[in-house]
């Protein structure tokens, strides 16, 4: 495959738009159209715009279809992709060139097309908007503006190539592409119902009369002023100059990003020293404002260009990349505030740099517009996000520009530094990728379900909860999870880490929704639970009444097996009951889960030390599940002094309700969830005045969940980072000072001893360094262990070396999560029963329109309200790769006979930017791994993608690459090598999507 895009000819472009709109009520995959109020607009550059925003010069304004998609979604100001003298094949662009998982980085700069091709794309887009604005009633045909972006030096801008481009954009009437597009309208009047021949013949020929000047880093102020003067005086264009964040100075940028959690973003002071200096910029802008005013033209600044940073971890190819998005916003808006104050608001500002739905209204209210966006529409929801932005701005009063409100911009700059939408999370989000390749067919999945160790049917119970069908929701939950109250309170919620909403604003609070379903559905649910008839002749014994043992007993009893559970303490719940503090989970929640075992008829023997495996077998138990926990204390090697085991402390804390003597000053060693519990409990202990959490790395690398870490901070726990305890003597904890080195195998940066030491005043040291499996118990029962003292099991069944004896929970591999214990229990039960212990919930039909209505809509969770409405039902409609592709090269197609839509990749439209790779839930790159439509044989041979080209559309004959082999096939032909589903896709393209095929 080539990384060079092939522009779509205008006839095919219009056929695509009109046919897709008629058949699917969408345009280039955008399902929501924005209809502007034609009586409401803002004047700019002698024209008018119905909404004061649109796509920035970048991937969304490079091809005609990109611009049309943006218009359809509500954009009315288009900053076209930059053109310069270096273009086409002569322009080196490393691929992939975009990475937008969180803050965005790119290594692209100007258009990858040739300048003449770029000109044609902009003219085609302009004509297409003229047509669809009328045909679909989207707005006034003169209610939008194009804005050229040109660079990068005066010599290049004066070159014949760029000069022709500038002149053609001002008056395109004598160009071939203008005539071709107009003639298409005249020749296809029968397909158009709201555009007459007369309108086509009298269309204006000015595509654009304004320019945003983009210069390279290091361009001297004299050169910038000469170019701007040339564009104003010689060419007569309204002109904006794009400024760089480097005007703020290195110290300001470094301190701001560090304080906001972006300390890992590396950059030197070179660009700050080499770029335009602030004092020179003020003088230059003052002169250019006067020049433009004298010429009767608009002049201003565009804030800001992307920010150059170092490539240090292989994020993208090369050595330097450009940062944008939410991390750029505090810098860009700070520069806007500085210039607004400098010029008393008289300098006009066009804005870009991290603008999105959450801040664009306030930016506009400050008198800064037009605003252009890029990063937000590179994320799931894609162009669809523009509809919400257009609605947000349409709700504001449109007033002519008089001045920028410097006070409001200063407030924006100040608040940006603490705004949760722009500050970095304390801990990086774990990878959302599943460790498998995207399939060619039926790839839609719910990432939350895939991330859950027990594959809870999350979207199913979310939908039922939305409909307040809590009994049914709880039935879905307990099919795989018999501990809904425990997991609804303290689950580690891997599901939420995978939630697609992370790429919008924040994950759906799945855990709290589970608890709501449990609370609201419990009374009705428990009445439906009866002891099932005994269906098995064998009996099962479960040793241990913690989460793994409780879950195993539930699964087995529900299936009709007689089960006895042995628990040596006086209650069920294990570590959750004995150790986890009441402020995290109340005993009442554990009791409700325990009641399910009782309702199912489990024979629960409390205060009973389990007999040995041999004795249990002799007592008639054919199947034995060992869920004994990890009881051996973790190691904390202090050279002098001792540390209290964290679990022992927590058990004592809970037993005494915090009345245990641990002194005034406490240090907790560790960085996991148990360490957070211990630190928070210590802070609540009577007599304690200070608690320090000592960890040898920084908090970013602590294994604890972020919410637990933040709760510890809220409770006043002090984080003593980069310290490794050595000894505790005479009331002092002596620690080695560490620094972070390169990443280790886990991806965390390795702590390195600096040779320095510090002392912390500490009365009691609590060690939360992990518990270990009690090997003695297993050895006493003749169960084989590995060299690390862990139980050897069949990984599919968890059967140990002793036949029909299984191991589950913390006692298997050491401390784990509750939901992982349930997973182990399910494996054991399935093996014992000889069938799955739980079934998938097939669910109800997917409401695609309801899903599309939520896509692209940013909506934060509201405290105290159920969070189920934000679920995107990804298993029904994913289409992330289609949403985030600027060029629309990944398409969702409906194939007859298939329940869900299928994704195909259109090779000719792709430039391998790589953005779809970031948001595919699989460990895959859809532009490489999805079934691909090729335009011709040369493209097919130039690629390794599985895919096809059409040899004869009417006869439905195809040339296909499948499993690396190229074969010819036809509809209805018996081709054992090509799966029927792929053949159905190819036929559907011929029959229902002919506009994808070039003549």
Summarize the structure.
With 999 residues, the chain is of the alpha/beta class. Helices cover 36% and strands 16% of the residues.
Describe the structure.
Helix 2 (64-72) runs parallel beside helix 3, helix 3 packs parallel to helix 5 (160-170) and helix 19 runs antiparallel to helix 24. The mean pLDDT is 94. It contains 37 helices and 33 strands. Helices cover 36% and strands 16% of the residues. It is globular. The protein has a 6-stranded parallel beta sheet. A 6-stranded mixed beta sheet has the order 28-29-30-31-32-33. Strands 17-16-15-18-27 form a 5-stranded parallel beta sheet. Strand 30, helix 36 (937-941) and strand 31 (947-952) form a beta-alpha-beta unit. It is an alpha/beta fold.
Strand order of the largest sheet: 4-7-8-9-10-13
Q: Which structural category fits the helices and strands? A: alpha/beta
CA-CA gap between termini = 20 Å
Question: Would you count the extended β strands for me?
Answer: 33
What Rg, in angstroms, do the CA atoms define?
Answer: 32 Å
Residue windows where pLDDT falls under 50 for at least 5 positions: none
Please, how many helices? 37
Mean pLDDT: 94
β-strand amount: 15-25%
C-alpha geometry: globular
Percent helix among the residues?
A: 25-40%
The largest sheet is:
6 strands, parallel
